[in-house]
Write a structure and sequence with these properties.
The complex is a heterodimer of chains A (112) and B (113). Helix content of chain A is 0%, strand content 60%. Chain A is built from no helices and 11 strands. In chain A, β6 and β7 form a beta hairpin. The N and C termini of chain A lie far apart (41 Å). Chain B is an all-beta fold and 113 residues long. The radius of gyration of chain B is 13 Å and the shape is globular. Classes of the chains: A mainly beta (112), B mainly beta (113). Chains A and B meet through β4, β5 and β9 of A and β5 and β10 of B.
Chain lengths: 112, 113
């Protein structure tokens, strides 16, 4: 069964810092990987989707990379802002599955 | 506005009293799914549906039922709720399947006493 791990579980940084969130998965036979943002008491918002054949995807200040062979993905946030404070989750879809397997998330706090 | 809606958003009920949480999407998506989110356990899939009248179990289907009679609706039914079903529930949809971008509803916080 696919296991998805996110490290660290929580992170606090001052505004303006660049930061990296990590996601690892045990089965490299994935179709794609998605990064989501979850604000307290709200649903998930999809940030980036990386296909297994891609190495990275960018959206604004966000850059997600994928190394399928090593079972790792990173989410890079440039010039962090207090509005980036949220929980970030990664999810992988395996080639053989019909579901997303989620990590438990990294809770990010950006302080002014 | 393209969205996934869930009702109710908050619900407190008692053990054994049947309840339904509704989910509706207005994006003509074929794939819909239900998740529950619990502290320390993350998001786990309950049921999913690839299209009308096509549903299948996820990782934690026990105690839940679903139906997909219309493309836009995917209600979650708890026939006899128990306290271990106290959780935050999310409905999600996507164009064709789990490999597409997922759109999540706002969540339903359920407490079973």
């Amino acid at each position: 069964k696919q296991e998805v791990t996110q490290i660290p579980a929580a992170l606090s940084v001052p505004e303006g810092e660049n930061l990296v969130l990590n996601c690892s998965f045990t089965d490299s036979a994935i179709y794609n990987l998605q990064w989501f943002r979850q604000d307290p008491g709200k649903g998930l918002t999809s940030l980036l989707l990386i296909q297994s054949s891609q190495r990275e995807q960018t959206s604004g200040r966000l850059n997600a990379s994928l190394d399928k062979s090593s079972g790792r993905s990173t989410l890079y946030i440039a010039a962090s802002q207090p509005g980036d404070s949220a929980t970030y989750l990664c999810a992988v879809t395996s080639n053989s599955g019909y579901a997303l397997n989620f990590g438990k998330g990294t809770s990010l706090l950006v302080t002014p | 506005e393209a969205q996934v809606t869930q009702n109710p958003r908050y619900l407190i009920t008692v053990t054994g009293k049947k309840l339904t949480v509704t989910c509706s999407q207005n994006m003509n998506h074929e794939y819909m799914s239900w998740y529950r989110q619990d502290p320390g356990l993350g998001l786990r899939q309950i049921y999913y549906s690839m299209n009308v009248e096509v549903t299948d179990k996820g990782d934690v289907p026990e105690g839940y039922k679903v139906s997909r009679k219309e493309k836009r609706n995917f209600p979650l039914i708890l026939e006899s709720p128990s306290p271990n079903q106290t959780s935050l529930y999310f409905c999600a949809s996507s164009l064709r399947g789990p490999t597409d971008t997922q759109y999540f509803g706002p969540g339903t916080r359920l407490t079973v006493l």
